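Lab notebook page, bench 4
Experiment: in silico fold of construct C2
Operator: M.H.
Input chain length: 240 residues
Purpose: comparison with the prior construct
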Amino acid sequence: MHRLIAFSELDTILKKLSPMTILTNSSMPVREKVYEHLKAALLSGRFSPGERLTEEHLAEELGVSRTPVREAFHKLETEGLIKPLETRGFVASRDTRDEVEELFEIRSILEGYALRVICERISESVLQELEGYVERADEALKKRRIDEVFKWNTKFHDVLHGLISEKRRLHRQMVSMRKYVLRYRRDTLQYPDGGKTAVEGHRKILLALRLKDPDLCERIMREHIRKAKEDALQSLFGNA
């Protein structure tokens, strides 16, 4: 089973597994390093949807043989991150409207249940930490610093995820699903009112947590993710 990558780790992983260092880290086999590197690159948006990926080019870039790149391609294809061309090579996947909608719906179920669990154990100090991230995101939004909004919103969810890390099965599924969904969040935050909707949603989540109402927490989180889904669909596909 492959180690799951938290979304906040993607940039770090890309730096650590850069072409200059990919062969110098002896902590994991080359095939695993190539797989982790390409997966992180795909999830972080380095490769645009529809961009062609070839064994030869990536093997040369990473300074490895074509075999670990080929093995990584097969794994990434099963995960839906790349798709084979009729001719040679692969392309970074471009999800359909139905696929994007499905991703967000699954995430809303997982995150809703998780917040139900979290509300019964969260401390005042963690609530204050979360409130700080919301305020920083709000300040960044007022200055139209979208990357900072994305950063603080991501930290908000990172903290929540950390509170259920001992529930390994749930945590693993949440982290995995979130990585796929967050490919679209940076763009949707730039959609009219997208950032504002995200910040307001986090304020509602905080209120529900302070009330320690499990039903309310689950409902608010599902609503939050579904609004993100609406922004993503509008941003990616318009009114089609």
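Observations: DSSP finds eleven helices and three strands in the chain. The first strand starts at residue 52 and ends at 53.
Next step: discuss at group meeting.
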